[in-house]
Amino acid sequence: MVLYADLDALRASAADVRIVTSDGQTIAAHSYVLASASPVLERMIHRARRGWGAADCTVAVFGVPSDAVIAFLHLLYSSSHFRAKMQAEKADKTWRLLVKKVRRARAMVSLANRQVPEVVAMSWVKYSSSKWARN
What domain count does the chain have? Predict the structure, then answer.
């Protein structure tokens, strides 16, 4: 699956599902956007493909006006774009945490390579200065 940064580019790509509303309007959509949004939509797409084949997938949504279906699809496409953005931010945050851990590990190795009296003396200076600072 390709994550699109531009919502218009996603809509311009080949849609593999047709949604037919009660007023007869046909709306093109992408199955992976619909399926990722709802397990109910995923089952509807799966049933439609089983009956008609993978090339022709038509999902009927009767009892709902086409304007409402279009608004719902707009919400789904916007939220999938939002999810892609959030995944990118999570990856960035993960890298930052990883860099922080590597720096901490390097500092620990640096301390481990020092002689014990030097480390004890440094920690005593830090402890005693903070103890006197509190009083």
Answer: 1
